[in-house]
Amino acid sequence: MEVKIFNNEQEIGEAMGQVLVDYAKANPKAVMGFATGMSPVPTYNKMVSEYEKGNVSFKDVTTFNLDEYCDLPKEDKNSFYMFMVDNLFGRADFSDDNINFLDGNVEDPEAESARYAEAIKNAGGIDIQILGIGTNGHIGFNEPADEFTDEAFKVKLTESTIASNQKFFGDVPMPRYAMTMGIGSIMRAKKIVFVATGEGKADAVKGMIEGEVTPKCPASILQQHDDVTIFIDKAAASKLSK
Ligand code: F6R
């Protein structure tokens, strides 16, 4: 793991956004895996600003998002699909035909998982995957568990995840289930760029980098991936031993 520590989230956005821009310039048909949540927003802003300057195009980039809520229409303002439209896809030249999401409203989650795995395979695999981390160490919605997962599956969200994300839904109770890519599907990405900011993530970041590799801290599996770059601010890095 290569760990890069920055002063603030703007600096992270500039640096991590540039990595994605450079990747798309060198590989116009790249397959990119995206995360939602607040952490990657400065990165997405950088990608948009480089697109607006005419420095990069994403029209031939294929995308796969990590996760999507269940029991929420795709066009709901709180769906992860709409999050990506608002923060990235709708602000640059991504093509609708190249955007892939898990469908959280299917009758048969196993069939949906198989469909997503096949789509990723047909695209040639994910070249570069963006990840954030939950305060409980989750990546995607792989919550702390007894075993590492493999392909996508339907997950019951933990109370800590609900506590973190309810704010986006205001007074409306947020979904209790989501479809998420599994740990195996995330680990098969060729390159991973990871972002976390703030003191609230410091324990999870320490567990991920310095802890035992265990499904109790799902992000710890990243220690076994051979191309991970960690973009964190000083607060998120504050519990690391060096
Ligand atoms: C969302 C996802 C989650 C988030 C994590 C951190 O697609 O994969 O694992 O990355 O919950 O969320 P933020 O960035 O809002 O703290």
Write up this protein:
It contains 7 helices and 10 strands. With about 240 residues, the chain is an alpha/beta fold. The protein has a 7-stranded parallel β-sheet, with helices on both faces. Strands 4-8-7 form a 3-stranded antiparallel β-sheet. The longest helix is centred in the first third of the chain and has 18 residues, at about 10-25. The model has no long low-confidence stretch (mean pLDDT about 95).
- How many angstroms does the end-to-end distance come to? 14 Å
Instruction: Show unreliable segments.
Output: none
Q: List the ions, cofactors and other small molecules found in this model.
A: fructose -6-phosphate
Structural class: alpha/beta
Q: What's the overall geometry?
A: globular
Oligomer: single chain
Q: What helical percentage do the residues reach?
A: 25-40%
Major β-sheet annotation: 7 strands, parallel
Compute the number of helices: 7
User: How are the strands of the biggest sheet laid out side by side?
Assistant: 1-10-9-6-2-3-5
Please supply descriptive tags for the structure shown above.
10 strands; binds fructose -6-phosphate; three-stranded antiparallel sheet; 242 residues; seven-stranded parallel sheet; alpha/beta; 7 helices
Topology overview:
Elements: E1 2-6, H1 9-26, E2 31-34, H2 41-52, E3 62-65, E4 67-69, H3 80-87, E5 99-100, H4 109-122, E6 128-131, E7 153-156, H5 159-165, E8 177-180, H6 183-187, E9 191-196, H7 202-210, E10 228-233
The structure holds fructose -6-phosphate.
Summarize this structure briefly:
The chain has 242 residues and is α/β, with parallel strands linked by helices. The chain has helices spanning 9-26, 41-52, 80-87, 109-122, 159-165, 183-187, 202-210; strands at 2-6, 31-34, 62-65, 67-69, 99-100, 128-131, 153-156, 177-180, 191-196, 228-233. The chain contains seven helices and ten strands.
